Amino acid sequence: MSQSSPSSPPPGGDDSSGRSRTVHGSRPARPAGSVRRDRHGRGHRGPLAWPPVPVMTSRRDAFDGFVLDAAARLEATCGQAFPRVEFAVEDVPRGPAPWDHLEVALGRLYPAVGSSAARIVVYRRPVETRVTDRRDVAALVADIVTEQVAGLLGVPPEELDPGFGD
Q: Which of 112, 120, 106 is nearest to 68 (CA)?
């Protein structure tokens, strides 16, 4: 009869020294919710650009800023006469509205209904395709917002902004 050798400990179990073993190819369990970000002992990763620099601003965020700047400038110009209005930005128009012409709309005015405020929507992609330089986007957005607010008030755009269309 042969003598039986001591059986080897089960994978991942304790060996005779009391230390735990890991099976080749598996990792020890980490606490739930922990994220391993300290690779190669170099410290945790950080953002690519530390301060909020123009590189970190997307075209969409910059466009939203142009719309808000134009609205704030008109509100300062109009004062108390500025209507209750919401401004929105969408990528493209969903389809022609019954009152639109055949060309692609750059912005639309939705009048107030009931207790909801009037809404002015500026379409980002059609505006960006109309200009060749990013600096011209701000000027075109200002003209669109001025035109829509003037339509809401029933006055010519030149009355709200003397530099309209320049």
A: 120
Helix extents (H) in 6-117: 59-78
pLDDT tens series, the chain, 166 aa: 545 545 555 554 444 555 444 445 445 555 555 555 566 776 666 666 666 666 677 889 999 999 999 999 999 888 877 888 999 999 998 876 666 667 788 999 998 998 999 999 999 999 999 998 878 999 999 999 999 999 998 889 888 888 777 7
Beta strands 85-90 and 107-110, pairing class: unpaired
Which burial class, exposed, middle or buried, applies to 72 when counting CB atoms under 10 A from its CB (0-12, 13-18, 19+)? exposed
Neighbours of 23 (CB within 10 A): 10
The single-letter code of the amino acid at 118 is A
Bridge partner residues of 121 (DSSP): 88, 108
User: Distance between CA atoms of 91 and 56, rounded to whole angstroms?
Assistant: 20
In sign, the C-alpha dihedral spanning 89, 95, 101, 102 is: positive
- Identify whether the C-beta of residue 142 lies closer than 8 Å to the C-beta of residue 75: no
This prediction's pTM: 0.65
Give Cα separations from 150 to 78, 120, 145, 156 (angstroms): 11, 11, 8, 6
